[in-house]
Amino acid sequence: MNQSVVVSKAKNTIVYYVTSSSNRTTAVLFDCKNGYVCYKLPGQSNCYLKRMDARDHSAAQASFNLSEHKEGPPVLPSDSTQYYREFLGVVPGSLVRPAEAGEAARALCEEAPIRWVKKKDDPPKQRLIYLCIDICFPSNICVSICFYYLPE
Question: How distant, in Å, are the alpha carbons of 21, 128, 133 from that of 84?
Fold first, then answer.
C-alpha cells in the first residue's frame, strides 16, 4: 500500500492517492470550498460524493497545517495513530448534477457520473461490501472507508 497527498491551498482541496499492492489507485478528494469528499475508485464507472462532516474538516485542516510546515510526505508514528472505519452506502437513483459537484470533483471524475453516498453505522448483513480503502491523515488518524451497494 502506497499513499501520496496533493494539497492545493489556492483551490482549497486535498487529494489522497492510495495505491494498492495490485497497483490500482483510489483517489479521495477533500473539497473544502464546497464541503464535499469525492471518491474515485479503480475499476468503477462512477465517482461517489458525500458531504464533509466534522471529522473530514478536522483531517483536511491537519493536512493544510502540515503542508505549511513540512516538505515531503508526512511520517506517522504507529504508536499514536488512531483508526476508525466508515461505511458508505450508495443512495439509489442519486446522480449528482455536475454543477452541484463543484469544479474539483468534476476534474477528478472527468466524464464519469457522480453518485451520492451517505454514511451508515455499519453494513447491513444482506448487503455486499465491494471495496475498502485505508487513508492515513497527518493528524495520526487513519480511516478505512468501505463502499457497498444498496438495493434499488
Answer: 22, 20, 12
